[in-house]
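How a chain folds remains the central question behind the approach discussed here. The record that follows shows the chain in one-letter code together with its fold in token form:
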Amino acid sequence: MADPVVVEMANKLAEECLAVQNEIGNDRLFMEVGDVLGASSQTLEEAFLTAIRTRMANDQGRRFLAQKIKAHRAAQATE
């Protein structure tokens, strides 16, 4: 398990990276940031990539659920 300070830094950087990624439209920016981090600290790189991937997975899960409920409600409305 990574040091709590490293995890906190990784979480903050992940939030910032995702915001920039969304603004500039580059959905792989996090990989570039990971490469930069890995050149200096493999520990921070791993914590960052974990933070990014969990946030991206969470977002995908939420989009999936939103699509499911939208389809369900549309089907209910046509009955």
The helical segments are 4-24, 29-40, 42-78. The mean pLDDT is 95.
